[in-house]
TrEMBL record:
Protein name (Swiss-Prot/TrEMBL): N-acetylated alpha-linked acidic dipeptidase like 2
Region (Disordered): 1-21, 50-78
Name of the gene this protein is made from: NAALADL2
Keyword Membrane: yes
Gene3D superfamilies: 3.50.30.30, Transferrin receptor-like, dimerisation domain, Zn peptidases
Lineage of the species this protein comes from: Eukaryota, Metazoa, Chordata, Craniata, Vertebrata
Domain of life, source organism: Eukaryota
Gene Ontology cellular component terms for the protein in this record: membrane; nucleoplasm
Organism, as annotated: Saimiri boliviensis boliviensis (Bolivian squirrel monkey)
SUPFAM superfamilies found in the cross-reference section: PA domain, Transferrin receptor-like dimerisation domain, Zn-dependent exopeptidases
Annotated family: Belongs to the peptidase M28 family. M28B subfamily.
The UniProt record lists the keyword Transmembrane: yes
Amino acid sequence: MAYQKVNADQRAPGHSQYLDNDDLQTTALDLEWDMEKELEEPGFDQFQLDSADNQNLGHSETTDLNLDSIQPATSPKGRFQRLQEESDYISHYTRSAPKNNRCNFCHLLKILCTATILFIFGILIGYYIHTNCPSDPLSSGRLDHQLYQEILKTIQAGDIKKSFRNLVQLYKSEDDMEVSKEIKTQWTSLGLEDVQFVNYSVLLNLPGLSPSTVTLSSSGECFHPDGQPCGEEARKDRSQDLLYSYAAYSAKGTLKAEVIDVSYGMTDDLKRIRKMKNVTNRIALLKLGKLPLLYKLSLLEKAGFGGVLLYIDPCDLPKTVNPSHDTFMVSLNPGGDPSTPGYPSVDGCFRQSRSNLSSLLVQPISASLVAKLISSPKARTKNDVCSPLELPNNEIRVVSMQVQTVTKLKTVTNIVGYVMGLTSPDRYIIVGSHHHTAHSYNGQEWASSTAIITAFIRALMPKVKRGWRPDRTIVFCSWGGTAFGNIGSYEWGEDFKTVLQKNVVAYINLHSPVRGNSTLRPVASPSLQQLVVEKNNFTCTRRTQCPETNISSIQIQGDADYFINHLGVPSVQFAYEDIRTLEGPSFLSEAFFPTQSTTVEEMDPFFNLHETITKLSGEVILQIANEPVLPFNALDIALEVQNNLKGDQPNSHQLLAMASRLRESAELFQSDEMRPANDPKERAPIRIRMLNDILQDMEKSFLVQQVPPGFYRNILYHLDEQTSRFSILVEAWERCKPLVSDETLHEALSEVLNSINSAQVYFKAGLDVFKSVLDGKN
């Protein structure tokens, strides 16, 4: 918009003789022309930049005009300089003395008023232009702490609770497309860009038409998995729960054999039992927990067992929980569509015939059924000291187990939308939740997960609609098929693997965010732990209780699996848990319970915990998406490696020497490259881009090819918080205690050694690249 020129011939009635004077008209025209020239010059650009900053801070409606930021004109001939340099300046504007002082005063006053009005009018027009034009990219791409808080303060517990209840109402539908459509509709209405369904036709292992059964040979009694006698009445009362009490991708059939109690199925347990009994084609009574289920099943399979009755010991759960009659579901799928292992399940692809992923017949049963099998109806003593369930060694139990499942091709749906980044749109921060999948039950945790990601989108999009954008692209995903082995996220990851390997910066996991209400349990990659500590401490200062939070890198359940283990992407997860659960065995979360909708609201009736998780996760998302230098810590990875090598481990001297060199390289990288880059005066764009590329790929060096089933390929993650060493070394050492020279241990040592060496070479190569760039400039 430009200023309107005043025509010298247009004269309003009532003007004085001075305003009618041609000279004065010419002066006014010059003044207007000069003002337009100045508004087009760099000084006015500065005014726009400053005003854009104010607008981005959310005060555009009340911001005062900052007149100090308007710079003087820098044209070769400014308004006053040009007039003074003209040779006839004095003679041209010399006027005869006015007839009286009053006329002279009026003349000066009218000139002053005219100039003032034109000046104010110009400022108003410029301000109007500024407020209606897009913000400067450089300014709109920078967020400070105040803007983070402006976004996060709009997150309210009441909104999350309302969204949660709306989603729970859709849970009754057997078709998960109803849930998917609702999520897509919400995200689209909030303004998220290009929200799409991404569908994959995958092989699902579903329960049969009738529940599985366990029959005691001694008495002929038949029981359903929940411990209730077989019968039509029991099936009618809990038909849905009984059907979905199964192990997906287990072998199916009938097996009659002796039951052998293997406790948790640890290596020592199996060695002890095999010395006492013949275990070939027997049925193992196995407790869930302490080690990944897939790993323990692989040991039982190698030992020669034919079937497994899987249960959760009540002593491993908090006293407030009574799972004695609860049935549950597990999946034996390590990840993705079993019929297309390692490649996406797209139209026309080759499908392998894999109806089951184990030769074992696996059936989850309740603790009450276990008590009937071992003739021990009570699991706790009178003193309230829990007695673990055990089958006496001198007693023999023979049972017949029947497992019925059906394998079908079904469609799994992902919902994906994004906010495009401003300066680095090809770098992605992925935020993942999951939604209900038909033909399974997974409690109401999916509703919490979906409500939290939707709450953050609702808080973020108003700023985006007003012109702000993050530096990097934020991708929001709601995954399907999580209960069957994270199928939706695996297939999407395999489908876009080439792009994701190069472009994904971080993964924020929102799987099962509220599992208790006593303690906050953050899990993060080593490179992100320092950032998580900062956010947690800031949030803690606003709470009444601030217990010390232990941030660790441990294996977690959910769809982060593919991004951690196949892409080497740094990840973060915040979740509330019961402190007593953390004191018990790990990996109990591998079980999916048919939790009622009231359970989540009992743990968090006012949804304050949901609000805290949303704000913590949201602030981490914003900082990773907007910091010029990624907030990753290279030195923390080297320190984590050294900590993992502490203790009495065989043949560790070479590992320690390599870890020491890795730390030296990481320290140089941290001091020579990362610290200077954090100084705004030294932030050359090409240098920052190179640095961020190195930071986002640091963990890829720690992906190993061969790991035991259920173990993470990313060896920076531990099995649990009690284990502070590399998991593959712990497992190999436990297996080869009698044979110290076992090649399994040497293979594990070689994997770790190669990973550390690869990371050290990676940091050193990064330093060399920066040095060559500097030498080239000099």
